[in-house]
Amino acid sequence: MTDPWVVGAALGAVLAVVLWATRSVTPSGALAGCGLTAVFLGAGGWGTLSAFGLLVVGGTWVSLLGRGRKPGRTRRRDAAQALANAGPAAALLVCAPPDVAAVVAAAALGAAWSDTASSEVGLLARGRPRMLMVGPFVERGRDGGMTLLGTGAGLVAALMAGAIAAMFGGISAMVPVVVGAVCGNIVDSALGATVERRICCYGNEVVNALASACGGSVAWLLAGGT
After folding, report:
1. Which terminus of the chain has a smaller tally of CB atoms within 10 A, N or C?
2. What spatial distance separates the first Cα and last Cα of the chain, rounded to whole Å?
């Protein structure tokens, strides 16, 4: 049987070429995606790779929906953005107990996917966003700004991540993944509203990584790994 790490590397190479050819990622982002694909399949199996695929494909699609509506944000993902969104899931996959590692990684990836869906789909809302949903109105694209449309998209994205987890890990895997993904999304919004602009250079990447790690950690607690 072919080593899953080798298969993952090969699939990652194909994915990298496709994303780079479609100008969805920079060369560094393509390389990071290739490496992450190998890790997720090699260490987590097809279920974890499917969760990563949802983030990549879904994230690319919703980003196209919001193209040109978020000032100062490039549409091409680089290595820093790729690692911020999926790096915590890879780390948790390796560090978590084997009986819950796949669920934890799926929740971390689900948190990143839920946040991406909220941010990009929220740009299509007709109304102005509110700071953390209940605060004052803010300009479109402001960190921490939330809309009903974006929030709904984030919930749907979390359910999609949970459905994939259930397909590969049974129905018991769905709740930790969905709850973890939603919690990670909420943390991302809260950090975006409070500290993101105070972190120079890579503030968005730091917040994304922390939120993704939070989503995975919540799932770890709920899954009760040994």
Report:
1. N
2. 30
Give the orientation angle of helix 148-169 with respect to helix 46-65, to 10 degrees.
160
Model confidence over 96-140: pLDDT tens digits? 999 999 999 999 999 999 999 999 998 888 888 888 777 777 877
Q: Is 113 helix (H, G, I), strand (E, B) or coil?
A: helix
Res. 30 pLDDT band, cuts 50 70 90: very high
Alpha helices in 68-202 (DSSP H): 79-95, 101-122, 148-169, 174-194
Residue 113, amino acid: W
In this structure, are residues 147 and 209 in contact, taking their beta carbons and an 8 Å threshold?
no
Query: For residues 178 and 184, what is the distance between their CA atoms, to the nearest angstrom?
Result: 10
What are the backbone angles phi and psi of residue 145, rounded to the nearest 5°? -75, 140
CA atoms within 13 A on the CB side of 138: 19
What b/e string do you get for 114-130 counting C-beta neighbours within 10 Å, with b at 16 or more? bbbbbbbbbbebeeebb
**How far apart are the C-alpha atoms of 53 and 69, rounded to whole Å?**
25
Cβ atoms of 140 and 128 closer than 8 Å: yes
CA distance 92 to 104: 7
CB 83 within 8 A of CB 32: yes
